[in-house]
Amino acid sequence: MIYNIYIFNKDGLCVYYEEWNKRKQSVNLAEDQKLLFGMLYSLKAFISTSSPKPIDPKTGFHCFKTSTYKLHYYETLSCIKFIILTDPNTPDLREDLKKIYSSIFVEYVVKNPIYQLKSTIKFYAFVNPIKPNFKQKT
Amino acid sequence: MSDPSTPNNQMGGFKSNSAGTPHTTPLQTGPLTALSSISATNSPVSGMHNNLSSNNLQSLDNNNNRFQQPQQYFQPQTPTQQPQQSQMQPSVSNNNLGSLTSQPIPTPQQRLISSSCFEFFYIEMIDYIMKSSSDKTQAHKKLDKLGYKVGHRLVERLSNETPLFPELLDAVKFICKVFWTNIFKKTIDGLKTNHKGVFVLTDSKFQWLQHLSFDATANNKDCSEYVQFAAGLIKGAMSNFGFKCIVSFDIQQVSTCVFTIKIES
Amino acid sequence: MIYSLYILNKAGTLIYQNDYGPTEKLSHNSYIRLGSTFHSLHAIASNLSPVSGSSSGIELIETDTFKLQCFQTHTGIKFYIIADPNHPGLEEILHGIYELYTDYVLKNPFYEIEMQIRCDLFDYKLSRLLKLTTD
User: Fold this and answer.
1) Which of A109, B108, B135, B246 is deepest in the core (most CB within 10 A)?
2) A76: closest CA of chain B, how far (Å)
3) What is the third-level CATH fold of A2-135?
4) Is the ipTM above a cut-off of 0.90?
5) Cβ separation of A52 and C21 shorter than 8 Å?
6) How much is the CA Rg of chain C, to the nearest whole Å?
7) Could you give all domains of chain B from N- to C-terminal order, each with its CATH number?
């Protein structure tokens, strides 16, 4: 069961957000996004300090789980962050996030001449593959 | 295979990075490139940057793992190559000319160029030209001119060994097959003519529009600037064959482009 | 292989920290800071829940080099261990540690509630428990 997906760029701007099955109505979406981004930033700093061996915070952090949801995380070297919230029993979705990045994001957003950096993504060529991709998992 | 000193290897150091690597399509050069020209003149890029020396290209190659390193530009002459080359000599068997072309024409080793690199470059080039003049039609004219020059020179090289075209239709067919294949790795999908100097070329999957998509809510869905360059290419090619023409285009649906060539007689 | 154990009180202050494996030794202040950071992250995570209804804070963090499992009691005490990414049964270990806490810390008349834990018996029992689990 997939709840929502966020894609953040390097500056913390949420360039894409989509939700399915979300039970709780958020009061302010922008605030939620900022909260999430800030929390992940601190979490990455936390794990790089607590780790017993040297770890790269970008690629090291995989996911965290609480009693009601699991958050999967994938960050590219260009600091684009792909985040999915699912129910706690979902196995690791990092490979799927990687696939979304390589075969959908790069193809239809990065290579799109119309795309302005730092703007939100609404292109149908990007949105359309994402939706069915996840519909089959929900 | 990867050189540790190249910047790209730092990217390759982390396991998760294989995601966004560029696609490479071998911009292969057939027997035509047995000519001794060193630079990758088969790509439209080089036509614009005439100063692109082989050194620059080599450094471009070095920066991408996917490029094959050209060990040497010229292969040593092998006995099997010779009979091939004698076929490539022009029909004029003038002694002087013969001596020029009877020298062994070396075949450079296969070199690959990243098509994603070119696509990114193309996007920026179009952007730059569109911003360089406030008037849109002026910018389109610039693009047309640019395409004209590139097409003109490109076709010079590509038609090196083909015999003279007896008819206009043959010239257009050459553009549909050889010319288009060299640039886009595919032929034109449909050719129609009214036999009175008007030709309609249809490309159902125009490569430079493949990754383009609009906002669902966008009102102005105009991407003609990305095709204008290709129209210029055709115009330049045709003019070098001796046929002055006007090329217009129409973008239908997603990435289907229809080019109309009208010969000025 | 278990690397370290941290115990936080209700307010988020570090009351116990110990290392059991080859890990970098930080200054005491850094440990306190780490503890408080985790406390806040734990709390924010429950706010971010996409499902209505209360969510617990972070229970598990998975990374390349370690796994962090947290157990929060109903009284607000948080126990969290940092271990190998594929270490099994961390939840039982945490429950075991909680039992030891109630036995040797809370039942210790010299221990002040919510303060730093300085009970030798607790340390001893802990190291025995963790040695047993790694064997």
Assistant:
1) A109
2) 7
3) Beta-Lactamase (3.30.450)
4) no
5) yes
6) 15
7) 23-114 (no CATH), 115-263 (3.30.1380.20)
